[in-house]
Specification:
Layout lengths: L8 E5 L20 E2 L2 E2 H11 L4 E6 L4 H6 L4 H9 L17 E5 L6 H6 L2 H4 L4 E4 L3 E5 L7 H12 L2 E7 L9 E9 L2 E9 L10 E9 L2 H6 L12 H8 L5 E5 L2 E5 L3 H14 L4 H11 L5
Parallel strand pairs: 1-4, 1-6, 4-5, 8-12
Antiparallel strand pairs: 2-3, 6-11, 7-13, 8-11, 9-10, 10-12
Helix pairs in contact: 9-10
The structure holds uridine 5'-triphosphate.
The site of uridine 5'-triphosphate (UTP) has 21 residues, from helix 4.
């Protein structure tokens, strides 16, 4: 044991408008869009659970109740399934222990930093995790840990603040938070600086922040009263940048794959990748893909 406070709480910011997926996201939250048969939020909650996190905190907004219903008991459905002697196993991952799902509303989507700040009362004075459900992190098929589990293991070693990063082609950095890397050891890299959506020529590296964080509670005070940043939004990256130097800050390179399900092409890629990994679908989907690509008739 490291003697550090364990990571018990995870914040899931799910109050965004999901404009890139309109009209699909007009009446249902983006985080309820399914990759095959599980909504994005389910993958993120499963990843947090695998990392030993018990309490899930959703930062929601209007029109987002489907996310809460998803983790509630569906009484009529369960009775009907039972009467018809149908398998209930598919509902198992949707069960959260009573009291372990808390929600708070971000009344106006002012940005990711603001969404996190809205959870300050529930997070309290302990380090916590953040998972952005529209970034799907899939562990390697060899049974390696999920992204958050890998981060919690790194946290037990170095403490402080951690973000997950990945390398992208340089011309893509302007859509993301980018780190100034320091020294590296294995999957751990010291973070010396952070900037949100830099111009390609000004980017300090090609290492972008992907949507997993472990942060100390001081970030809430840093977010308090913070000015708007890139895109007119209150940026989490700006708050984290101000904490560098005052507390240890490391990046973890995830030993797995990350899919940007907030973009249409990324969503399709994730669907295909997950299908090709799943035993129940692999062969059929491979044959379909080959036929569609004209590789077979
Ligand atoms: P995105 O930047 O992908 O924004 O947010 P978005 O609104 O969901 O989607 P687009 O760009 O309009 O298509 C990343 C994550 O942060 C949450 C989103 O719900 C998503 O999970 N978020 C973003 C908030 O909770 N509140 C905000 O004010 C902004």
């Amino acid at each position: 044991m490291s003697g550090r406070k364990p990571i018990r709480k995870a914040v899931f910011p799910v109050a965004g408008l999901g404009t890139r997926f309109l009209p699909a996201t007009k009446a249902i939250p983006k985080e309820m869009l399914p990759i095959i048969d599980r909504p994005l939020i389910q993958y993120a909650v499963d990843e947090a659970r695998e990392a030993g996190i018990e309490q899930m905190i959703f930062v929601t907004g209007r029109g987002k109740t489907a996310l809460i219903d998803h983790f509630d008991v569906a009484f009529e459905l369960e009775v009907t399934l039972r009467e018809r002697a149908k398998d209930m196993a598919a509902l198992e991952p949707t069960r959260i222990q009573p009291g372990n799902l808390a929600t708070v509303r971000q009344q106006v989507p002012l940005g990711l930093g603001h969404a996190i700040w809205c959870a300050r009362g529930i997070v309290g004075d302990e380090p916590f995790a953040i998972l952005l459900p529209d970034e799907l992190m899939i562990a390697n098929a060899d049974g390696g840990p999920g992204c958050m589990k890998q981060m919690v293991e790194a946290y037990d070693e170095v403490g402080g603040n951690l973000i997950s990063v990945l390398a992208v082609p340089r011309e893509e950095v302007s859509s993301y938070g980018v780190i100034t890397p320091g020294t590296s050891r294995g999957a751990l890299t010291e973070v010396r600086g952070l900037v949100e959506k830099p111009k390609v020529e000004e980017a300090p590296s090609n290492l972008i922040v992907s949507g997993r964080y472990i942060l100390q509670p001081e970030v809430m005070r840093t977010l308090e009263g913070q000015e708007k940043g890139a895109g007119g939004e209150i940026q989490l990256t700006d708050a984290m940048a101000r904490m560098i130097g005052a507390q240890p800050f490391h990046a973890v390179t995830f030993a797995g794959k990350r899919y940007d399900c907030g973009s249409k092409a990324g969503f399709v890629e994730a669907t295909l990748a997950v299908a090709l990994e799943r035993e129940d679908l692999r062969d059929e989907v491979r044959a379909i893909a080959q036929r569609l690509l004209g590789l077979t008739t």
